[in-house]
Specification:
By secondary structure, the protein is an alpha+beta fold. It is built from 14 helices and 19 strands. The strands form six sheets. The protein has a four-stranded antiparallel sheet with strand order 7-8-2-18. Strands 3-4-6-5 form a four-stranded antiparallel sheet, with helices on one face.
């Protein structure tokens, strides 16, 4: 006897209700959707850059600047370490890709070598260290950064850059940005709905490295012009004073990593836009100690090697908070505060390609996709009815519509982003869903021709078609999974693969459960002596 268990009926009904409830917001206009009760889902399917319009950026990590920064830091670490051990040295300088120096006292060479070895830390995942120390003739010592250590540092910087870029774009309010790694040193940014790639590039590309450095007022203007400053100091332009040069200590008092928050605000006296900041516990203590020891001296607020302002410390600043003033507009102050909150980029990013996809072009793509879907469903419906009659053909079409509803509901609930290749995946899913029904109906037709009674023909047809359906769809799912893994987390290939995997699962469920439920219900009512197939 042809039976369909009750738990399967419940499962089918729940799946259909799920698809209807979660796919419905995609079909309703905004005014109707906003009037729906709050307990119903209001989330719509996210549209990708090619459907919604937006900005595309291809960024490349500047590994040369990363290397230069590490070497400069190594110079300062070398100076601090040897001075702390009271080892006299001379000629500390950066020569090409190495830091070189000469130990004045021959008896201190081994002590200096041992002290500098403490700067070399293990590189994660390798057997090398991040600094190589070697001695040479005439009491010289040479420090280099091994190529393998630089490769690992660049890889780590790329991963950190991706997370910081994601935070910055999220703060802009851009919905569902796609931020993915391409190759070993590139980042692809797709920001749907963001029509200004220049603003996006400005927010993403600025390193936003914040430091607080003490100012040395004893250096004369002529020495500044000639670049004559002590080795532990550097010369930076002061934007507040028309890029006038100032000498500041290389070693910062506090850095942006210790910021707890930064927000755009307005100066209470001038009512001009500025930035309020607050340090975490460690930063507040260091800042407080530094201002306590340097009352009546200047300190510079430096962002990306430019002094925004250099105020005098009139009294110790012990609260761990303060203000950054400058020639800000509300927008630039907001953008800078956003970047400071997100953190500084460990490596500079250079934009090597950018483009904008217009909203009208995206809307055209959506309309083209909708038209392609309607044509595909219409042609398939006509074929199924012509091939298997109104009863079985109609069941196939109804099952197909339910399958599409479940796919849309799953993609909407899961927050998947629909792209133009994703639409291609949906249309392919339509074909695969019908293909499963064709296998079932042909098998039922063969069983009836072999002399089986209608109920037995239906039951045997479903049973014997199941293996072929599973074989075909499992291989397709594996192929889609491989595409997803090779996509590297984003891009059109991922959109196609995700849609196809969801569609394969929904197609198998629809064919083996929903189609069988509908056929069983029809037969229990019609009690046909011969199948109209």
């Amino acid at each position: 006897m042809l039976r369909f268990e009750r738990w399967k009926v419940v499962l089918c009904v729940l799946a259909i209700l799920f698809g209807a409830v979660f796919s419905l917001p995609n079909l309703l206009p905004d005014n109707v959707l906003s009037a729906m009760p709050g307990f119903l889902p209001h989330q719509r399917m996210n549209l990708g850059l090619d459907l919604q319009g937006g900005s595309y950026l291809l960024l490349q990590v500047d590994t040369s600047s990363l290397k230069a920064e590490k070497l400069n830091n190594l110079v300062e670490d070398t100076r601090t370490t040897l001075q702390g051990k009271q080892i006299v040295f001379s000629g500390l300088a950066l020569n090409g890709d190495a830091v070189t120096l000469r130990i004045t006292d021959p008896t201190q060479v081994q002590a200096a070598y041992a002290a500098l070895q403490t700067l070399a830390l293990p590189v994660t995942g390798t057997v090398v260290r991040d600094v190589a120390v070697s001695t040479g003739p005439d009491q010289t010592i040479r420090l280099t950064i091994p190529a393998q250590a630089l490769t690992v540092a660049a890889s780590d910087a790329l991963k950190q850059d991706i997370e910081i870029v994601r935070k910055r774009i999220d703060s802009l309010g851009t919905r569902e940005p796609q931020i993915t790694q391409q190759g070993t040193d590139r980042i692809v940014v797709e920001a749907p709905g963001e029509s200004d790639p220049e603003r996006l590039k400005q927010v993403i590309g600025q390193t936003a490295k914040l430091t607080f450095q003490m100012v040395d007022d004893s250096i004369t203007p002529q020495d500044l012009a000639n670049g004559q400053v002590p080795p532990d100091e550097e010369i930076l332009p002061n934007e507040e004073l028309g890029n006038q040069l100032m000498a500041v200590k290389r070693r910062p008092v506090v850095s942006g990593e210790m910021l707890e928050n930064a927000q755009q605000s307005f100066d209470s006296r001038s009512n001009k836009p500025d930035i309020d900041f607050r340090f975490n516990g460690i930063g507040a203590k260091r800042f407080g100690d530094a201002t306590l020891e340097n009352v009546n001296k200047k300190f510079a607020i430096v962002i990306d090697n430019k002094i925004l302002e250099a105020p005098v410390i009139n009294e110790p600043i012990l609260g761990g908070s303060g203000q950054i003033a400058g020639s800000f507009t509300v927008e630039t102050a907001n953008n800078l505060a956003l970047m400071l909150r997100s953190g500084a980029l460990p490596a500079k990013l250079n934009a090597i390609e950018q483009r904008t996809v217009g909203a009208e072009l995206g809307a055209d793509s959506v309309r083209a996709g909708e038209l392609a879907g309607v044509i595909a469903i219409g042609l398939i419906a006509a074929f199924m009815i012509l091939a298997y009659g109104f009863t079985f053909g109609g069941i196939a079409v109804l099952c197909l519509l339910m399958n599409m509803m479940i796919v849309m509901g799953a993609m909407t609930m899961g927050g998947a982003t629909l792209t133009l290749p994703g639409i291609a995946g949906l249309i392919l899913t339509i074909a695969m869903a019908v293909d499963a029904n064709v296998l079932i109906f042909e098998r039922i037709r063969d069983e009836e021709r072999a002399g089986r009674r209608p109920a037995m023909a239906i039951d045997t047809g479903f049973s014997r078609a199941t293996e072929s359906i599973l074989d075909a769809n499992i291989t397709t799912f594996i192929s889609a999974l491989i595409l997803f893994m090779l996509a590297g987390g984003g891009g059109p290939v991922k959109g196609f693969a995700v849609t196809l995997m969801i569609g394969v699962c929904a197609s198998v469920f629809s064919a083996l459960f929903i189609t069988r439920m509908l056929v069983t219900w029809w037969f229990s009512v019609a009690r046909a002596k011969q199948l109209p197939i």
